[in-house]
Amino acid sequence: NYRNARFLSSATTKNTLPPEQGLEVAFAGRSNSGKSSTLNCLCEQKALARVSKTPGRTQLINFFILPDGNSLVDLPGYGYAKVPEKIKVEWQKFIESYMMERSTLAGLVIIMDIRRPLRDHDHVMLEWAESRQLPVHVILNKSDKLKRGEMTKQLRDTKEALKDYDLPATVQTFSSLKKLGVNELSRQLDTWFAS
Ligand code: GDP
């Protein structure tokens, strides 16, 4: 199913969002966390999420449609140091309205670098999810960068930290480079899409 994802459209404003059809799972993360690589890995396509990537400037929400009519949604990466404040505020407002109001949104995947999980804006995403009780799945990506013991510790600490939030949250380690964790991610998405 995910292998057959294809680009549907990009949105820059509320008015350009596609109609609410089927269910959606959104992908968020700091820039450079490996969000595009994770989406490409899940969908077994080399350039699915890269085609429309425009770092730091145009802030787009990209929609990828699946054969069953559900969608994967690539939210703009956050944490670019160079983005002007005005753009950051606009991005924040647009994403917040999407996160709060999108009725088809069934789950949120947050991609983090396993070496630096749960940073600044990751918490904003979690708070938005919490406010509407949207289930969250955290991907600790780049697990190939750590030794097994360190990896286990980061996984455990992140699970513990997520208990501060009153929402259903799951966490897994992942490596888009080594293609590790793809089945676990697919299963989580299957569960949300089946709900
Ligand atoms: P995005 O900005 O979040 O979309 O991140 P990208 O997918 O463009 O990846 C950012 C950088 O991290 C690139 O240089 C990737 O090659 C690298 N990267 C992504 N995933 C992994 C991973 O699992 N392991 C390692 N070692 N590098 C990764």
TrEMBL record:
<keyword id="KW-0342">GTP-binding</keyword>
<comment type="function">
    <text>Necessary for normal cell division and for the maintenance of normal septation.</text>
</comment>
<comment type="similarity">
    <text>Belongs to the TRAFAC class TrmE-Era-EngA-EngB-Septin-like GTPase superfamily. EngB GTPase family.</text>
</comment>
<keyword id="KW-0547">Nucleotide-binding</keyword>
<keyword id="KW-0132">Cell division</keyword>
<dbReference type="Pfam" id="PF01926">
    <property type="entry name" value="MMR_HSR1"/>
</dbReference>
<dbReference type="InterPro" id="IPR006073">
    <property type="entry name" value="GTP-bd"/>
</dbReference>
<feature type="domain" description="EngB-type G">
    <location>
        <begin position="21"/>
        <end position="195"/>
    </location>
</feature>
<protein>
    <recommendedName>
        <fullName>Probable GTP-binding protein EngB</fullName>
    </recommendedName>
</protein>
<keyword id="KW-0717">Septation</keyword>
<dbReference type="InterPro" id="IPR030393">
    <property type="entry name" value="G_ENGB_dom"/>
</dbReference>
<keyword id="KW-0460">Magnesium</keyword>
<dbReference type="GO" id="GO:0000917">
    <property type="term" value="P:division septum assembly"/>
</dbReference>
<keyword id="KW-0131">Cell cycle</keyword>
<dbReference type="GO" id="GO:0005525">
    <property type="term" value="F:GTP binding"/>
</dbReference>
<dbReference type="InterPro" id="IPR027417">
    <property type="entry name" value="P-loop_NTPase"/>
</dbReference>
<dbReference type="GO" id="GO:0005829">
    <property type="term" value="C:cytosol"/>
</dbReference>
<dbReference type="GO" id="GO:0046872">
    <property type="term" value="F:metal ion binding"/>
</dbReference>
<keyword id="KW-0479">Metal-binding</keyword>
<dbReference type="InterPro" id="IPR019987">
    <property type="entry name" value="GTP-bd_ribosome_bio_YsxC"/>
</dbReference>
